[in-house]
Amino acid sequence: MTYEFNGYKPVVHESAFVHPQAAVTGNVIIGKNVYIGPGAAIRGDWGQIVIEDNCNVQENCTIHVFPGVTVLLKEMAHVGHGAIIHGATIGRNVLIGMNAVVMDRVEVGDESIVGALSFIKADEKIPPRSLVVGNPYKIIKQVSDEMIDWKTKGTQVYMQLPADCHATLKPCEPLREVPADRQKQESTYKTWNESKG
């Protein structure tokens, strides 16, 4: 659902997909091929939220701001399930892990990876290509070419999802038993540990 607030209507590119169970409010700008998952709350009531092309904001994420602030997710930012972004700038081709929290005025440098459950306190500046983990966060090493290639491939899977949702997602009544001819889904992308094995 999209909501006008205080005269601001969200702007959503026609190629983006915002799940009907997500809430996008006010001064929000969503670019091309963006995926917004169910349960996501993107609240541009007091400030602007800009989600550039090819980003994804997965299920149950929250994006919000203090008054007069802009949140920016640069192209190909990938925000994992349950993460919170509050008043931060997320660089190009960054991965924010599941249930991570990124606070006000944080700048996460391009091609960084923030691990699941990490906490980045306000005003921190994370250099490009940093691997960030923990609560409080620590930079444990630089992101390798191999790691960023793995991350980019994962984001490309999500870049296809909006078109797939527009084409095939629809409400339905559930089946009462598994059909005998139900096809197995392909393994098109692997976890980091699987990809190294």
Can you tell me about this structure?
The protein is an alpha/beta fold and 197 residues long. The chain has one domain (2-142): UDP N-Acetylglucosamine Acyltransferase, domain 1. The chain has 2 helices and 20 strands. A hairpin with a 4-residue loop joins strand 19 (130-133) and strand 20. The model has no long low-confidence stretch (mean pLDDT 96).
Task: Please summarize what this structure is.
By secondary structure, the protein is of the alpha/beta class.
How much β-strand is present in the residues? Answer: 25-35%
Q: What share of residues is helical?
A: 10-25%
**Number of E strands:** 20
Order of helices and strands: EEEEEEEEEEEEEEEEEEEEHH
Query: Could you give a short account of the major beta sheet?
Result: 12 strands, parallel
What fold name stands as the CATH topology?
UDP N-Acetylglucosamine Acyltransferase, domain 1
CATH architecture: 3 Solenoid
**Cα-to-Cα separation, first versus last residue:** 42 Å
Mean pLDDT: 96
Radius of gyration in whole Å, from Cα?
17 Å
Tell me which oligomeric state these chains represent.
single chain
Low-pLDDT runs? none
Class by SSE composition = alpha/beta
Shape: globular
Continuous helix count: 2
CATH homologous superfamily title: Hexapeptide repeat proteins
Class in CATH? Mainly Beta
**How many domains make up the coordinates?**
1
What order do the helices and strands come in, and which of them pair?
Layout: E1 2-3, E2 11-12, E3 17-18, E4 23-30, E5 35-36, E6 41-51, E7 56-57, E8 62-64, E9 70-73, E10 78-79, E11 84-86, E12 89-90, E13 95-96, E14 101-102, E15 107-108, E16 113-114, E17 119-120, E18 125-126, E19 130-133, E20 138-142, H1 145-168, H2 192-196
Parallel strand pairs: 1-4, 2-4, 3-5, 4-6, 5-7, 6-8, 6-9, 7-10, 8-11, 9-12, 10-13, 11-14, 12-15, 13-16, 14-17, 15-18, 16-19
Antiparallel strand pairs: 19-20
